[in-house]
Design a protein that fits this description.
single chain, mainly alpha, CBS-domain, five-stranded mixed sheet, three-stranded mixed sheet, 24 helices, 8 strands, flat, PPR_rpt, CBS domain-containing protein, transit peptide
């Protein structure tokens, strides 16, 4: 709104009028911003300005955005007033009443939790509203008839598909099957979206055999009617793969994967990811690695296929479970340069935990060992003085994600995390999270790891004296060392650990060596 105000002021200064430069496309973007921020009242006000005298005009997109916002806000009366006004609107660019506008409003209601908004309820809301306001039954019936005419224009199944979506979001997804029966009774033809929605309902209800039967019905009907638009697409197969993975039906998963590759469809990143997830759910790590290798290979020519961090984490989980630390480390290294999209903090934390899990399952770390066996001496961490200003040592935090700080007597008084360094002119002590976590040398690795994960910290100070299991650092206990998950990774790393392009070549060799049959 600040930008809109500034544009209006600039237009007035040029003598062009307050609305100059703010065309319908720009104002539609502003309407969308209002809806996303939940300010439907402001959206209504802007909408009235757009279609009023001197306004930039409205179009189908304007109405669609506003109806979506009213549906999400459950402002039913306002939405019906907008729908009523469409055919009376003579402003430039005004749309005609269409199934997409009405169904867009209904879809917003469903997304907002109105799962039982059936057609007859929709119609009677109109009747009740108009009768309550005006008592004009003739007008009410005329409006109902008009809406029904619009919804059934072209014998569309759009509304029925929407009602099935409502069932899926409810606690009774198989109710979508009754809607399909109604489609057939009305003499309408189910389309691809109809079948995809029904298959999704079956998968959500764990009725996988039923979902497979509907897949076969799709293919038979497409062949019988010579209608390629009815053939299964990537969405169909992806939905089925999710259900088959949940039921751990490896044979059917492989059958669907083969069918997808032979079908005339475009297999996108989502479809490839669904293949890998389903194979992993069925315990086929080699099969998943084979598909992963195919993704990496094709991503060289098609950047849209570059995997997201989720895929790397899924495969890392499988290898961590069997204790293949080497493979988990390779995948962890390649996730950063090779994946697409941002890697969230939670994803980074999970990757670290998977490295730890793999090391544990590989018996490289014994949980009952004392932490003293794995710690590094405190002075090797090169602690910083607590009174130093961040600006003086900022480059240290580009190198290390966490650094201990000490006072004039050499006692550790805190630990500073990289993500907490937000004030360049502040002392380090002000950015620490209070006294450091402290454990005695005899504490088991298992307890220390639990402490780090529970407190969401990256480092603990190891002291010799003290009988506590965990707690704040005591000045009477000199710091002997520190322990962190990063130290754990270094401890488990081989002396000849691969990096850079070597990791890529090794990962490709592992993929090629896996059983791709």
């Amino acid at each position: 709104m600040d930008e809109v105000g500034a544009a209006r002021r600039r237009a007035v200064d040029r003598g062009a009028g307050a609305g100059a430069g703010l065309n319908t496309i720009v104002m539609n973007a502003v309407l969308e911003a209002c809806v996303r921020c939940g300010d439907v009242g402001l959206a209504l006000s802007l909408f009235d300005e757009m279609r009023g005298p001197g306004g930039c005009g409205v179009d189908g997109v304007s109405y669609g955005i506003l109806l979506k916002g009213l549906g999400i806000a459950r402002r039913i009366d306002d939405a019906f007033e907008i729908l009523e006004s469409i055919e009376k609107d003579t402003s430039i660019g005004s749309p005609r009443l269409s199934p997409h506008l009405i169904c867009g409003f209904l879809n917003a209601l469903i997304e907002a939790g109105w799962y039982k908004i059936y057609l007859f309820i929709f119609q009677y809301i109109i009747v009740i509203r108009i009768l309550g306001c005006t008592g004009d039954m003739r007008r009410a019936n005329a409006l109902v008839a008009r809406f029904r005419q619009v919804l059934y224009e072209g014998h569309s199944v759009l509304l029925y598909n929407l009602l099935m979506k409502g069932y899926i979001k409810s606690n009774f997804p198989l109710g979508a099957l009754t809607v399909k029966d109604e489609i057939l009774r009305q003499g309408l033809k189910p389309d691809r979206l109809t079948y995809n929605t029904i298959i999704s309902a079956c998968v959500k209800s764990a009725e996988i055999d039923m979902a497979i039967r509907f897949l076969e019905d799709m293919k038979e009907e497409a062949k019988r009617d010579n209608n390629p638009e009815l053939l299964p697409d990537a969405v169909t197969y992806t939905t089925l793969l999710k259900g088959l993975g949940n039921s751990q039906d490896l044979y059917s998963v492989l059958k669907i994967v083969v069918e997808m590759k032979s079908a005339p469809i475009s297999i996108d990143r989502t479809a490839y990811t669904a293949m890998v997830d389903a194979l992993l759910a069925c315990g086929s790590i080699n099969g998943a690695l084979c598909i992963f290798g195919e993704i990496i290979k094709q991503a060289g020519n098609n950047k849209d296929l570059r995997p997201k961090p989720h895929l790397y984490l899924s495969i890392m989980r499988a290898f961590a479970t069997i204790g293949d630390l080497d493979m988990v480390k390779r995948l962890n290294k390649r996730m950063w340069p090779d994946s697409v999209g941002s890697i969230s903090r939670s994803a980074k934390e999970e990757a670290d935990e998977l490295l730890m899990e793999a090391a544990l399952n590989n018996n490289q770390i014994v949980l009952n060992d004392p932490v003293e066996k794995y710690m590094i001496p405190f002075q090797e961490t090169q602690p910083l003085h607590a009174d130093l200003i961040l600006e003086e040592v900022v480059m240290r935090f580009f190198k290390d994600p966490v650094v201990p700080i000490v006072d004039d007597w050499g006692s550790c008084v805190g630990i500073v995390h990289r993500q907490d360094c937000t004030k360049i002119d502040a002392p380090l002590l002000s950015m620490s999270r209070g006294p450091p976590l402290c454990v005695p040398t005899s504490t088991s690795v298992e307890h220390v790891i639990d402490l780090l994960l529970r407190e969401k910290s990256e480092m603990v100070v190891v002291v010799k004296r003290g009988n506590m299991y965990e707690g704040s650092y005591a000045s009477s206990s000199r710091p002997l060392g520190v322990f962190s998950l990063a130290i754990l990774w270094k401890f488990t790393a081989d002396a000849t650990d691969i990096d850079g392009m070597d990791a890529v070549h090794q990962l490709q060799q592992d993929v090629e060596a896996s059983n791709c049959g």
